[in-house]
Specification:
The structure is a single chain. Helices cover 30% and strands 26% of the residues. It is α/β, with parallel strands linked by helices and 245 residues long. A hairpin with a 4-residue loop joins strand 3 and strand 4. The longest helix is centred in the N-terminal third of the chain and has 15 residues. The relative contact order is 0.14.
């Protein structure tokens, strides 16, 4: 018997495309199902969460997870990555150096935000270094006409922001854009020490250029939004950080 997205607590956004809002930090993980392939977008906050996400994604896709894309290097989006062993891992250029040299800072941030020390230690020790680094755009062929475009649109929310655009699989179906934390719906966008506020509005301009007016935008935290919401948030960030239009 085939399991449905809803039975596992996932939201189906388009044909073969969905996401789940995780507990604790309301972080989103996405899934794009291809032909014998499955792309997961963001890995959760711990090895246990990553393992659960992988199991559920494979149930929904009917195959193993073949690709993992990380939208940015914050703990709630990346510390489950080691649970996806064997998947080809993609991230913005520079994430390899960060995962190699700044693990202590990543662990400290996770513990400071409430992840138990033992879980943080386990996940950071096992964290793989991304093999595929995106400096511009990278198109993944997921089979049977399904593609996903990975685009390095940052810096903005972080120094390494990657978005994932999934074209509709049937005529008239909207594109879906996984935004990472460049866009947040459930609260005000967070600007931590690695944010680049002066370039964040421009990153959102690039994101909107990619997705267009009719796309569905999946924030890193919160409900799915439209282009008008993203544009309003872009203008609010520009005003907040004193960035000229």
């Amino acid at each position: 018997m085939t399991v449905t997205w809803e039975e596992l607590g996932w939201e189906r956004v388009a044909a073969g495309v969905g996401r789940v809002r995780l507990p604790h930090w309301d972080c989103t993980t996405g899934l794009v199902v291809g032909e014998g392939t499955a792309l997961v977008v963001d890995a959760g906050s711990s090895l246990a969460e990553g393992a659960l996400l992988r199991t559920q994604a494979q149930e929904l896709a009917g195959c193993r997870v073949t690709h993992l894309a990380l939208t940015h290097p914050h703990f709630d989006h990346v510390l489950g990555a080691a649970a996806f062993a064997g998947a080809e891992m993609f991230a913005a250029v520079g994430m390899d150096a960060l995962f190699t040299h700044e693990r202590a800072e990543l662990r400290l941030d996770a513990v400071r935000q409430g992840l138990p020390v033992a879980e943080a230690d386990e996940a950071v020790d096992a964290l793989p270094v991304p093999r595929h680094l995106v400096s511009g755009e990278w198109t993944l062929d997921l089979g049977d006409g399904r593609q996903a475009l990975l685009a390095n649109v940052g810096p903005g929310h972080s120094a390494h922001d990657l978005v994932v655009l999934v074209p509709g699989s049937v005529p008239g179906e909207p594109e879906v854009v996984f935004c990472g934390d460049l866009v947040e719906e459930s609260g005000e966008p967070q600007a931590g020490p690695d944010a680049v506020p002066s370039q964040w509005p421009a990153a959102l301009d690039r994101l909107l250029d990619l997705g267009g007016e009719d796309a569905l935008y999946v924030p890193g935290h919160g409900a799915v939004v439209d282009a008008a919401f993203v544009r309003r948030q872009r203008d609010e960030l520009a005003a907040r950080f004193g960035v000229s239009p």
